[in-house]
User: Which sequence fits this backbone?
């Protein structure tokens, strides 16, 4: 082993430059791989969530008297009730999802996000629904919102960190004060940026954020009087439709989606199809469809990121090939002596493969160290903004080292084979 290391550094500058080529490749692999790992952690959480329930949303069909909100992408209370009656359905939980508008970032705030944006998640706390994979969320402090809660919230770790919130604090959302009853542990996925609250509170925020809904709510009382007036029938059909929509306004019809669990022994794929066929103007995302959707995003993301890193490693391997071929040319007489005293071809091949693998190992270790340092510094610089862009995982670290050794070994195959073919007689005659 000492002889191999001594041979490597006979031409110190050339060997260092060769190692540097591997370093650049592994550095790119580590940095881009850490970005991919962070995204994969987020996608894994999304997959776990989607495969643990059936997610139902509006198919945005044409609006009508019974469903004046369908064209706006909302599920009505009637649709929620119909879903609950479908065979195989265990429980249904209506939900309202809307963006959290940060007053501190409204004007001139950063729009850059490396994860789900801050989101308000309103849920029907009276429902018995439980996600099959995420029955509970781990709390860092306090508790999760529960049945009977109103005017209170549980917040994800990113929200708590960004707003310096802790259990017991008061947090203003849409000019209304909410008491923080719990802070979630970091999950590295969606819930980190969620604000959980009662569905009624979330509906009120969504209505205030949406001028059309706000207008319908404000005009609801007067519209009901207008519909009852005998002169209503003399109005144009278009005006009648607008007034009727305001008159039929019901806050309980504002539901962004519904989460559905299935009974023991029921096939969630069949239940999903039954929901779509038996309830009008809805679409159901089954666990299998959710998994397929996440996997397609993950494959594309990893292919783009890892492909870029592999190009850098291929370039590094070419420098190893060049260095090892030159090493064989310079050491032909030495190889001839070894073969003359009994060294076999396999001994020569083994020596050169170990040498090229050592170059890959040194380059991999240095590249991993520098890459990890860069990732750490970037994560530290964005921590104050509550952003984590990269994630170094054991899989990535071990993979980078193993891959650099394999690259070195593969790059050394031809030079090793070339060295083994050296004729000892002709080699010993050379000066």
Assistant:
């Amino acid at each position: 082993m000492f002889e191999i290391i001594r041979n490597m550094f006979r031409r110190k500058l050339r060997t260092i430059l060769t190692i540097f080529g591997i370093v650049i490749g592994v550095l790119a692999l580590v940095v881009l791989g850490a970005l991919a790992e962070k995204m994969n952690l987020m996608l894994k959480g999304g997959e776990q969530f989607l495969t643990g329930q059936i997610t139902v949303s509006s198919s945005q069909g044409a609006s009508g008297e019974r469903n004046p909100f369908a064209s706006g992408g909302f599920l009505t209370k009637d649709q929620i009730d119909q879903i609950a009656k479908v065979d195989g359905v265990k429980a249904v939980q209506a939900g309202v999802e809307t963006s959290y508008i940060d007053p501190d970032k409204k004007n001139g705030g950063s729009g850059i996000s490396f994860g789900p944006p801050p989101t308000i998640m309103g849920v029907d706390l009276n429902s018995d629904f439980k996600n099959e994979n995420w029955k509970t969320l781990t709390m860092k402090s306090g508790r999760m919102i529960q049945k009977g809660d109103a005017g209170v919230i549980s917040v994800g770790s990113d929200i708590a960190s960004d707003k310096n919130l802790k259990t017991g604090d008061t947090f203003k959302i849409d000019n209304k004060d909410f008491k923080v009853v719990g802070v979630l542990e970091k999950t590295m996925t969606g819930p980190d940026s969620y604000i959980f609250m009662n569905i009624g509170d979330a509906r009120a925020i969504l209505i205030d954020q949406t001028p059309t809904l706000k207008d319908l709510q404000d005009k609801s009382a007067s519209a009901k009087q207008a519909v009852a007036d005998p002169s209503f029938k003399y109005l144009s059909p278009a005006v009648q439709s607008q007034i009727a929509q305001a008159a039929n306004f019901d806050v309980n019809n504002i539901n962004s989606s519904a989460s559905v669990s299935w009974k023991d022994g029921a096939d969630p794929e069949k239940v999903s199809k039954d929901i779509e066929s038996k309830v009008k103007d809805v679409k159901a995302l089954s666990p299998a469809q959710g998994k397929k959707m996440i996997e397609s995003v993950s494959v594309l993301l990893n292919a783009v990121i890892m492909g870029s890193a592999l190009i850098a490693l291929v370039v590094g391997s070419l420098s190893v090939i060049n260095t090892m071929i030159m090493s064989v040319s310079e050491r032909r007489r030495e190889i001839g002596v070894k073969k003359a005293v009994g060294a076999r071809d396999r001994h020569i091949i083994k020596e050169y493969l170990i040498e090229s693998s050592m170059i890959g190992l040194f380059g991999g270790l240095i590249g991993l160290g520098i890459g990890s340092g860069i990732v750490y510094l970037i994560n530290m610089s964005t921590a104050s903004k509550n952003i984590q862009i990269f994630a170094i995982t054991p899989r990535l670290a071990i993979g980078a080292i193993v891959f650099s050794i394999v690259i070195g070994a593969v790059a050394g195959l031809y030079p090793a084979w070339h060295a083994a073919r050296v004729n000892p007689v002709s080699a010993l005659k050379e000066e």
Remarks:
- The beta strands are 54-58, 89-99, 119-123, 139-142, 152-155, 170-173, 176-184, 194-198, 257-262, 282-285.
- Confidence is low (pLDDT under 50) at residues 61-71, 107-112.
- Residues 21 and 212 are 60 Å apart (CA to CA).
- The radius of gyration is 32 Å.
